[in-house]
Amino acid sequence: MMYPPMRLSDLGILTFLDSDPRPTFIITSTPVDTPVKVAAQVSVDSPQPLQPAYLNPALRNNPVLHESIIELSRVRHGPFWDWITTPRAPGTDAGTSRSFLFEDLYWTRFTVRDEWVVVSSNDQQSWDVTFRPPSSHNRGNSNSLLHDPTGPAISSDGNHGWIPSDFMPEQESFVHVINIFDWAATPLGPLSHWPPLLQQTFNQVLVDSRPIVIYWGTKLTTLYNEAFSKLCGSKHPALLGKSVEDAWPDFCEKIKLAMSTTSSKQRAGDEDEWRFFVGKADGRSEEKYLKWSIIPIIDRNRCLGFIQPIQDTTSMRLWERRTKMLIDLGDMLVTARDVKSFWVKLIQELEACQPTYDIPLAILYSVEDDSFTPSMGKACQLEGCLGVPNGHPIAPPRLQLGKSSQGLSASFKKALLSQTPLLLRTKDGSLPESLLDGLHWRGFEDPCREAVICPIRPTKEERVLGLLLLGLNPRRPYDNDYRQYISLLGQKLTTTLASTVLLEEEARRGRNIAEQAAYDQAMLKEKLTMQTKEATESVQKFQQIAEFIPVGMCFGNHRGNIQFANDAWHRITGARQVNPLNPEGFLSCVIEEDKPNVQRAYEELQRTLTVTIEFRVRRPKEDNYPLQHPIGSSPSFEKAGLDLEADDEGVRHVLGSLKAERGLDGTINQVLACLTDVTLHKKAAEEAIRKAQQAENLKRMAELATVGMYDMALDGRLLGANNVFFEMCGLDRVDLSQVAIKPFETCVVDEDVAALEKTLVRLVEEGKSQTAELRLKTQWVETDTDGKQISAPRWVLATFMPVSNSEGVIQTFTGCLSDVSLQKWQFEKERERKDEAIESKRQQENFVDMTSHEMRNPLSAIIQCADAVIGCLTKAQELVDTRLAQHELPNPQTAASSTGFYREAVQLLKDSIENAETIIACAQHQKRIVDDILTMSKLDSNLLSITPITVNPIHIAQEAYKMFEVEARRVDIDLTMVVDRSYTELNIEFLDLDPSRLKQILINLLTNALKFTKNGQERNVSITMSASKTRPDARSSSVQFIPRAVELAWQGDGPFLPVPEENRVYLMFEVKDTGQGLTAEEKSSLFQRFVQANSKTHVKYGGSGLGLFISRRLTEMQNGAIGVASSPGQGSTFAFYIETQMPSEEATREARSAAEAVGHILKAPSGTFGRGTGKGPFTMPKPTKKLLGPQIEGVLLVEDNLINQQITRRDLVTSGCAVEVANHGVEALEKLEKTNRAGGQFPLSLILMDIEMPIQDGLTCTRKIRELEQSGHFKGPRIPIIAVSANARMEQIMEAKGAGCDDVLVKPFRIPELIEKMMTVTKLAERVG
Fold first, then answer.
1. How many CB atoms lie within 10 A of CB 425?
2. Distance (Å, rounded) from C-alpha 1270 to C-alpha 1149?
């Protein structure tokens, strides 16, 4: 049976993670090819890496940790990210993984369905307090935590087994060392003689993931956990049981001093740090930095020992050392003025770097084109080396990479083509060991086994200018930290070399400019001589030059006649080009209002000889000289956004300067006039005045705005703001020109300062507007409709807009603060309501499950016991009837009395059988009542969901038919089922629908039909099944359908998805009976809650009045409807239809394969599907050995209810199979070890697994069995497991199948149903196997 795939929101894990107090997040493990909106630096053409899909509230409420995770997902680099994204090895458990320390928390991960990676942190036990032993009443049971998971806590030789039950598989090897270690030879003695406090303390240390050492007793005997053993290297396990002098020979005195201090104070000592070297199995040593502290173990004010937790700080110390080296290197290299000095300073700084552990070997080559043989390619010149003697073959003075095979020529040639450092290793031959002989190793003086070649180029696009070979620290692995250090070194060399190249190029350009300047000066001197010669000619050419200047120039005589005017003068004034031009001709161009001013200017000229005047002229309509904007002038007009193209009707503003020359007689001989067109300047001035007025208006509007508006410098100093801004920030308004205020530094809460600073950095880098939500230190206060005062943190939406100067450099920024406190407060209230609703729904589900379990569980025992009673009585009746028929009487004298006795016994047996059948009928009736009540509870709580799956509809109808076939024969009712031709014409084999809801409707209708027909003269009940592509109505059916309630059309788990019309199929059922029928008044009250046809119905027929109401709701939830047609004395016809969907080809194939596996492929007939073969009393036969096939030899029954356990075991044994019983999951796992699947004798064929059990529930036990199967612990094919439980929700059934169960049987059930289910699952397992 195939189910649709589940989405992330369907997993049910989010509800758990939302309430989990541990920080947790989920990332998608499937790359997608869509552009990324968060990480802009990722190319949109490349697949998108892993991204966070979910962060739980515990993580989001921790700002520091939340920011770290977001930053980690943005950069997607680092050990923690690599640990998260590394795929698990095939065959490993998807739910377990090693832990990882990040941000002082231990993290674990597991993968869900190969699609989501769930990463969760674990609380770290604090060791900064004095260790106290557990209370005395637990001291006697200290060994209970340390036991062998497959046996008792004490082995046969008397030693205690130190294997915690929850150890991961990778820890078992270390615990095995603990078990086999000869402790009797140590001061501690055998394990069995250890004090309880030592056992409990050692147990806690063993399960801790941090390196921890215990020093016990007066001799300070050493014990440690697996994490510490990794620090011991090759000394493990020899250090176990040794004294502190043997464990730390170099630091024992320091440790003892710390022990003395902590013992006297009875509290943990201060942390200390040291460096030491871990010996490896291959003889190498690894450099480590460890931080440790001493914690005394106090019992009754007496120090019994010490605990030493250790923290590995190697990465931090190495990073500090390497970072200092990079900083010093950068400071030295920036002083280089050319490439040659760059190489010298590089070697000098590498040699001066202290300590020299990370640079045991260095060889530097410069790269250039081979000038002697250009066809041979590149040549390398040795610039310097460290640790290499003169003449050593690893560093020849010159290498021709095209033909030379000296030293590392091949590797250098390969590095020229690489963008990243090239790694050389001795183990793969890329670093020949023959070249390492005779080197003077620096640092630890150990030979290097690895080296890197860093190509040095100014930029990625330019050629390589140098090659730097660095030997790697022989006492550190080449891990991610080392790679990052080498990468940063390469970047440092690249950037500083680029600066040096640019500086050298700039110096070369300066020399060229100086030479060019000297040449230009010589040329200028030559030109000066020529210009002096031509000076006299310039005067003669004045008039010609005047024609080209933009200033209008003219000469006039004493009469005012203009004798000469250049073209600019005529363009400005618009006067005709005539010579001479009289004053009237000029004044005709001046507008009428300005003519008196011109005349007064001429009069003033007689006295002062110099006059400046401004007047306006009107250009003619045929003007061929439009207003020109000067090219190359100040761009202030354009940048100010001034509109200077307005229509002025040809009016030009002219500024004139007049100068008169007097003759010897004092009269004016000549007048020189210069005219300048100032129209643009006048318009600019007017536009500037208008802009200033607008700015003043905007300033007044800002003061009246409801948002805080501000102008601020880049250093955070406030330049201007309105009153609302000061009110929001809680500041007094001051003169900002006198007082410097930085409101964001003092008014924003500390938690949001980091976000504010990042936003401002993006503002400067991108030059675009930015927004951010911030909290201010002032409180938001509001009064609700009830007059209550609300106080909450003030939230604002801050907008930042950059303001640039004329060169495009950002100098200030402006923006506004919008108060969003009300929206934030409302959002928080809605979130609280949502959490309350979710909790209420969870409690309702728990109540429904508990009620279902407690009410269904005893019904199963009642029905099975009644079936057993009927079977036994039926067999007894057959025996009595057979003996009576054969007249097996003792003698003729007692025949008459014996015959009466036998007849009375037969009657008693019949009465008992009838009573047992009545018990079954009552139990079935009770089950239907329970189902109705629970269904109503789910409907009222919106917990009832529709879960469509691909099924055979005829098979579902047949199951409902078979459920009532026995009861129909018992009450002498002819029950038939017919498949209409409309169904077969649509070629329907499978449909997507919810089989449980469909069967529930059919059961309700068949229950009513049999109940109201069993007392009639004619007793017929028929089921008719049809299908249609269109929605049924009164014309296509014999019933009148009740109008559907629109708001109840869908109440499933997810949103309602309309079925495409081409795939839509309406499945219709009619249940017709020959009962007493219904009146019109009775029909009007049907399909309502707790309402029956009339008041006598319950008295005569029983029932709760819920069946038809539930049926109506279920049909409407499946986009269908229900109706009835009935007349008094003529019987009733109840019909309903639901909307279904044709399944996909893949779903059809899987459903057909599953059906063929169990032999249930049913072909839809065209006529009567089934008919009762007889009438009269019917009894349930007692199970016999014929009911089970030979493939089921033994069954493991896991059930905690003793009654159900005994009944089921008895019937299964009677059916012909061996049965083994377990009371809970743990006992079931122990029983499995004794079956033929684990080398035992019991022939195990199938497991019946109850779900709700103490100690270990059924689902946990099932998962453990499947894990053991995958690991190869159990032999043979997959063990079929049937879950047996009173939990009947579809979600619970899906959960059981997800845990590994092959099928689910819901209580109460009858033994034939159980046997049929067992045969089906077994056949399916054989087919799959």
1. 14
2. 27
Buried b (16+ CB within 10 A) or exposed e, 1081-1112: ebbeebbeeeebbeeebeeeeebbbbbbbbbb
Q: Which 3 state secondary structure label does DSSP give 911?
A: helix
pLDDT tens digits for range 1013-1053: 887 788 899 999 999 998 888 777 778 888 876 544 444 44
3-state secondary structure of 90: coil
pLDDT tens readout for residues 901-922: 776 777 777 767 767 776 776 6
Residue 279, both tokens: 């010996």
CA–CA gap between residue 777 and residue 744 (Å, rounded): 10
Q: Compute the distance between CA of residue 382 and CA of residue 397 in angstroms, rounded to an integer.
A: 5
Report the Cα 1160 to chain-centroid distance in Å: 43
**Amino acid making up residue 1025:** M
Kindly state the average pLDDT of the residues 551-573: 80
Q: What angle do CA 1180, 1185, 1191 make, to 5 degrees?
A: 120
- Look-up of token digits 């299908």: 1027
Quote the DSSP letter at residue 465: -
Give, in order, the Cα–Cα distances in Å from 845 to each of 390, 842, 986, 994, 1253. 83, 5, 40, 20, 19
- The C-alpha atoms of residue 1059 and residue 877 are separated, in whole angstroms, by 57
For residue 828, which amino acid is it?
E
Pairing between β-strand 974-979 and β-strand 1020-1028 as defined by DSSP bridges: parallel
CA distance 1140 to 1118: 8
Three-state SS string over 816-836 comes to EEEECHHHHHHHHHHHHHHHH
For residue 736, the one-letter residue type is L
* Helix (H), strand (E) counts: the chain: 37, 41
In the predicted model, is pLDDT for residue 512 greater than 90?
Answer: no
Residue type, 1032: P
Q: Report DSSP state, residue 644.
A: -
Backbone angles phi, psi at 1137, to 5 degrees: -140, 155
What is the spatial distance between Cα 1297 and Cα 161, in angstroms, rounded to a whole number? 37
Residue type, 824: K
In Å, how far from its chain's centre is CA 1267? 27
Encode pLDDT of 14-27 as tens digits: 777 887 788 898 88
Decide: helix, strand or coil at residue 545: helix
Residue 296 pairs in a beta bridge with: 306
* 1236-to-1231, 1241, 1265 alpha-carbon distances in Å: 11, 5, 15
Give CA separation, 807 vs 398, 636, 713, 814, in Å.
50, 12, 17, 18
Helix (H) or strand (E) holding 1198: strand 1194-1198
CB 1236: neighbour CB atoms within 10 A?
A: 16
Q: What tens digit of pLDDT does each residue of 472-510 get?
A: 989 888 888 888 888 888 888 888 888 888 888 888 888
1026 φ, ψ (degrees, to nearest 5) = -140, 175
Residue holding tokens 């016994």? 905
Distance CA 47, CA 35 (A): 8
CA nearest neighbour of 442 among 362, 385, 352, 360: 360
Strand partners, 1041: 1123
Burial (CB count within 10 angstroms: exposed 0-12, middle 13-18, buried 19+), residue 284: middle
Cα atoms in the 13 Å half-sphere on the side-chain side of 636 = 7
- Report d(CA 635, CA 642) in Å as an integer: 11
| pLDDT of 46 | 39
CB 119 within 8 A of CB 82: no
Residue 839 is classified by DSSP as H
Residue 133 binned pLDDT confidence (cut-offs 50, 70, 90): very low
Strands annotated E in 572-705: 610-618, 651-662, 668-677
Candidates 1208, 1228, 1229, 1206; CA nearest to 1318 is 1208
Pick the closest to residue 1089 from 1104, 1106, 1072, 1077 (CA basis): 1106
- CB under 8 Å to 1053, separation ≥6 — which residues? 10, 945, 947
